[in-house]
Amino acid sequence: MSRFVASIVLLATTVVVGACDGLGQAMTAHTDIVARAAGHELTVDEAAGLLRLNPRLPAQPEVVEALANLWVDYILLAKAASEDSTLRSIDITPLIQNEIDQAIVLKLRDQVIQVDTSFTDEELRAMFEREQPGLQVRARHILLRLPPDATPAQRDSVLALARDLQQRAASGADFAALATEYSQDPGSAKQGGDLGLFSRGQMVPPFEEAAFALQVGEVSDVVETPFGFHIIKVEERHLPDFEQVKDAFRQQAQVTIQLEAEEAYVKNLTEPLGIEVQDDAYEVSRELARRPEMKLSARAAGRTLVSYKGGGFTAGELQEVMRRFDVSQRSTVLQFPDERLADMLRALTQNEILIQEARRNGHDLTREERDSLESQAYSRLAAIAGAAGFRGIQPRDGETQAQAVERVTNELLQGIVKGERSALPLGPLGYAMREQYGGTTFDRTYQRVASMVEATRPMNMGQPQAPQPQPQPTPDGGQ
After folding, report:
1. Contact, 95 vs 381, CB < 8 A?
2. pLDDT tens string 85-99
3. Among 314-323, 340-349, 450-459, 461-470, whose mean pLDDT is lowest?
4. Where are the chain's structural domains?
5. Fewer CB within 10 A of the terminal residue: the chain, N end or C end?
């Protein structure tokens, strides 16, 4: 995938100070309120009542938190839909921002990347013979395993045997017989070390490099991999016929040249800026992945996580990205070691630099292009609201409109808790609606709700694992 496209799709003080700075609401006195949104409230008793509908749900603060956030999202969407069936009162920008950014960066690409992707058949054939795409080899090997805690003497002993076997095989000894007698690979030894046909990418790199460098009948030197010492003999090499794959290879070669040009452009643009991940960025990143809904003060949001000449990537910008990620994506981020987090942060910073460069070059959407994106987003949102039952909410006898909104929202949540209906995640729209209409959760109540639910369950019930939610489409396509 193009760096220009992939990088956009990836949108892709200490943490304690930042958290306290941005989460002052958690220290308020709302001990009986789990969540509040647009004048509606979810009480501790109501939240506990919802969770009691499914005894399989663990009585844990994390489950209460998930319920509270769903309640806020749904109340706000239901209220907006009941007041305006077109939903045009909702600021749709968070749903299309990713597409806007991608579109203007692609316009930059078309402006700055000009490469010749035409090839004569002779040039294409030479490239094909040099790269040998689709090449497969059939090889045999002898594996001598080396214990992870092998002493130098043990290593020398195993290596000496491997070199002896290599010399015997290279001198013409029956390779299959040697493999059957000596190889410690249980999957191939009985077949004379035969591994069958394999392509590039199927073996560990040192083994693959050696095997694909051999011609038919040749025996490799001793090759070390994490499995031990190998001696390899190639018996067949299969390369597709050029004429049969010429057209597909031409397209592949054109894409490769385009990608190489894009990689070079991005490198030339970003390397001189000295992108540097700050030491404390890892803790902040994990905290935002864990709690993307947290409220950040202006100071906390402006905190630089990645610096570069002329700018920086901030905690507020990372929060926007995390709000675009679904639960599984954020969970993956939480498992990243520091090195992977650093790669992610650098890639996101490169995204920012590319977008800024596109705008400096005058690229933006036309009014028609933006209208088209907005229309598609409103259609997706209308489908979500319709599936949730939020369109055309009518009060029953004696109900106010606000009570009708709460009733329909609670009916949806009851179905979700019981497992009868699927959750309808709103992605970044949920956070945007909180900014637009007002909505918050109070995490100090989560444990209280969990304790109330636990106290009403039979002592011998235990805590079975909650069923894992299935991925659901979000209004922004899951980006």
Report:
1. yes
2. 889 999 888 889 989
3. 461-470
4. 135-238
5. N
Provide the CATH number for the domain formed by 135-238 in this structure: 3.10.50.40
Alpha helices in 338-462 (DSSP H): 338-360, 367-388, 401-418, 428-437, 446-455
Return the structure tokens found at 142.
Answer: 């002898």
Identify the residue whose tokens are 């109501």. Answer: 46
The one-letter code for the residue type at 200 is R
**432 — pLDDT class (breaks 50, 70, 90):** confident
- Three-state secondary-structure class, residue 344: helix
Contacts of 172 (CB under 8 A, 6+ apart): none
Structure pTM?
A: 0.69
Three-state SS letters, the chain:
CCHHHHHHHCCCCCHHHHHHHHCHHHHCCCCCEEEEECCEEEEHHHHHHHHCCCCCCCCCHHHHHHHHHHHHHHHHHHHHHHHCCCCCCCCCHHHHHHHHHHHHHHHHHHHHCCCCCCCCHHHHHHHHHHHCCCCEEEEEEEEEECCCCCCHHHHHHHHHHHHHHHHHHHCCCCHHHHHHHHCCCCCCHHHCCEEEEEECCCCCHHHHHHHHHCCCCCECCCEEECCEEEEEEEEEEECCCHHHHHHHHHHHHHHHHHHHHHHHHHHHHHHHHCCEECCCHHHHHHHHHHCCCCCCCHHHHCCEEEEECCEEEEHHHHHHHHHHCCHHHHHHHHHCCHHHHHHHHHHHHHHHHHHHHHHHCCCCCCHHHHHHHHHHHHHHHHHHHHHHCCCCCCCCCCCCHHHHHHHHHHHHHHHHHHCCCCCCCCCHHHHHHHHHHCEEECHHHHHHHHHHHHHCCCCCCCCCCCCCCCCCCCCCCCC
Residue 31: pLDDT above 80? no
Q: What is the percentage of the chain residues whose pLDDT exceeds 70?
A: 89
What band does 11 get if pLDDT is binned at 50, 70 and 90?
Answer: very low
